[in-house]
Design a protein that fits this description.
single chain, alpha+beta, Beta Polymerase, domain 2, 7-stranded mixed sheet, elongated
């Protein structure tokens, strides 16, 4: 199958891929970059697999990147792209979710069989042709997360794949294949205990920044995975970004001090059950937007921000929350301007009692 190539792929073909081919080796763009292209998602992370050995790759690119010989891999950062060039390989044995016995594979097909999910097995050749050895296009069109090969073996040898399956299901809004569902229904979620907390945190960040968090929390409840994900929650409301989600969850997963400050500030505002004008200058917008999402007062926050901008015109002698007692949120800015104009024109005194009386009798 041939498809139209866009400029990003052309750059890669002309540079990295063609350089390998020019030196007599096979080379293909493979995996997530191709999947995302087919889904219309922009990606700057490019995996390239090749018949060249790591020593041959190092010789060709001569210090342009950094080698990781134990994984037969070479990493290059150029033109905003992140390239991982890897020799065809077979992963023979795993320990602690990482391959510890790797051998060189003889073909693209052999290399593809080691991969996690079918939607990550697409390849593009030097002419822009799509190579689909495992019929992954059918799974992509069916919006299905399906393991390559034996599901139990793949998910057991590398437990991070359990989280990745759930993450892809949520972020892409794909269904889990029945074999993955059976794996979870057979109470295998305990295997997540062997996944480092840092990895769990990283994957959950990606899910929480997606638009499909409800699907994730459904999975967690359905398959009793709370303690294995190191989280505890009741009802979680979609928010401005991931920190709003984390503020609604009990967890012992690791966060930086800066992140904890954001999360705790959101919790403080939510505990107060409201947001006041003075707090707009006390907290960053990220904190305010997340708290407003949880409290479901986004419109009020927008009005408060509008009022804050208006304060430079005239300093009204009344607490802004008094406005919210008498005026609908969507009309706050309009009424504020109206009160302001009446004071400037001399029809209204700038004191709290007179302004409140005016608002009460609107």
């Amino acid at each position: 199958m041939t498809f139209k190539i866009y400029c990003g792929i052309i750059i890669i073909m002309k540079d990295i891929v063609n350089e390998l081919i020019k030196n007599g080796y096979e080379a293909y763009i493979i995996g997530g970059f191709v999947r995302d292209y087919l889904l219309g998602i922009k990606s700057m992370d490019v995996d390239i697999c090749t018949s060249a050995t790591i020593n041959q790759i190092m010789k060709i690119f001569k210090g342009r990147g950094k080698p990781f010989k134990e994984y037969f891999a070479y990493h290059i950062e150029e033109n905003g792209y992140s390239y991982d060039i890897t020799t065809y390989r077979k992963e023979l044995r795993y320990r602690r979710n990482k391959p510890v016995e790797i051998s060189i594979a003889n073909s693209l097909e052999e290399d593809i069989l080691r991969r996690d999910f079918t939607i990550n097995t697409f390849a593009i050749d030097k002419d822009g042709n799509l190579i689909d050895i495992l019929g992954a296009k059918k799974d992509l069109n069916s919006k299905l997360i399906k393991v390559v090969g034996d599901t139990n073996k793949k998910l057991t040898e590398d437990k991070t794949r359990i989280i990745r399956a759930i993450r892809f299901s949520c972020t892409l809004d794909f269904d889990l294949h029945p074999d993955i569902i059976n794996f979870l229904e057979n109470k295998n979620a305990y295997l997540l205990n062997e996944v480092p907390k840092e990895y769990k945190r990283s994957e959950l960040d990606k899910i929480f920044d997606s638009n499909n968090i409800n699907k994730f929390f459904y999975f967690v409840k359905r398959y009793n995975m709370e303690k294995y994900f190191n989280i505890k929650f009741d009802t979680v409301i979609p928010t401005y970004n991931k920190y709003g989600i984390w503020a609604q969850i009990e967890t012992d997963l690791p966060f930086s001090n800066k992140e904890l400050k954001i999360i705790n500030s959101i919790k403080e505002l939510v505990k107060d059950k409201d947001i006041y004008l003075n707090e707009l200058q006390q907290y960053d917008n990220e904190v305010l937007y997340n708290a407003a999402s949880i409290l479901k007062i986004e419109e009020k926050l927008k009005s408060l921000m509008d009022i804050l901008k208006l304060k430079s015109v005239i300093d009204l002698d009344i607490d802004i929350n008094t406005f919210f007692k008498y005026v609908d949120v969507k009309n706050i800015k309009k009424i504020y301007r109206q009160v302001e104009k009446n004071i400037i024109d001399g029809y209204l005194q700038n004191n709290s009692d007179d302004i409140e009386y005016y608002l009460r009798n609107l």
